Amino acid sequence: xxxxxxxxxxxxxxxxxxxxxxxxxxxxxxxxxxxxxxxxxxxxxxxxxxxxxxxxxxxxxxxxxxxxxxxxxxxxxxxxxxxxxxxxxxxxxxxxxxxxxxxxxxxxxxxxxxxxxxxxxxxxxxxxxxxxxxxxxxxxxxxxxxxxxxxxxxxxxxxxxxxxxxxxxxxxxxxxxxxxxxxxxxxxxxxxxxxxxxxxxxxxxxxxxxxxxxxxxxxxxxxxxxx
Length: 227
Fold this sequence. Notes:
The protein has about 230 residues and is mainly alpha-helical. It has 8 helices and 2 strands. It has helices spanning about 10-35, 40-55, 70-85, 90-95, 105-125, 140-155, 170-185, 195-215; strands at about 130, 135-140. Strand 1 and strand 2 form a beta hairpin. The longest helix has 26 residues, at about 10-35. It is flat. The protein starts with 10 loop residues before the first helix and ends in a 12-residue tail after the last helix.
């Protein structure tokens, strides 16, 4: 993404830190998957973790995450999809004790879009037929709509692509929302795809400055994101 911030002066040291953070997140997800789902083989947990942190979205089962029949597995994958979509320099600063460095406009914009899109998906799904890979399983209650809607919204937003429901047959409004979320993507400096949140912030600031210049053409403006 369009970011000039580095972690260390040396490229070799930065690469080493990135590898350690990446492998640490992968190992943590493997451990959590094995602890919370005793029926999951180590091979499945390892491949699922590789695919989650990289926001790749591939599984070794034809029915994807639905084949594990585990709510804990779904939520662990959801959390690590988000972790893989954060700027990896934030992990570096947190390890160094500089927690205040997470107070960045892009970070809060990313979290805000995640929350808003998840609630929007739940609202659009509530009361509609509950269409899963196994077929229609009744009607979406609010809790189920929040569960399935949040997962699919995060999966699309982070460009991961995991699925445990047949969203191709969901209401058209939900499909349009998922399509839009794919363009948002994650933060700069993450494994996520998409346009990146920082570019949307820059575009918003540019449009705002252009509108202001219509009414105050003589004003001098400096476009800044964070520092």
